[in-house]
Design goal:
By secondary structure, the protein is an alpha+beta fold. It has one domain. It is 38% helix and 14% strand. The chain contains 5 helices and 4 strands. It has helices at 11-23, 37-45, 65-73, 91-103, 105-109; strands at 2-6, 29-33, 55-58, 61-64. Strands 2-1-3-4 form a 4-stranded mixed beta sheet, with helices on both faces. The radius of gyration is 14 Å and the shape is globular.
Length: 128
Amino acid sequence: MNIIIFDGVCNLCSSAVQFIIRHDTNAYFYFTSLQSDVGKALVKKYKLEDVDSIVLIQGETFFTYSDAVIEIIKYLDGKWKYFTILQYIPKIIRDLIYQYIAKYRYRIFGRQDICMMPSEKNKSRFLE
């Protein structure tokens, strides 16, 4: 199973999940928030307590920061796959940019008091 763990109260993260759903017509990804029981269990299992943004778990492998974003893009429909070219930027630079945005995401994009609720159509793709 390919699981994306995201910050459920972050507007940027919730928008990213909606974007992924729209461009993942093969339903390759499943989702869970960091705040959910499943999310907390996965964070503990993979020792990701220091990560507070998007994580991709594929089988027993996990990706964080910019690696997670690039790996997710590989499976999206359309021209989005061309953005995998970002993998050729040194990881240290990609991750610094990612971590800067992650650090200020609440100030820039805002946050919600509760996690996003999936639509009925997509509810089966969310793990609680």
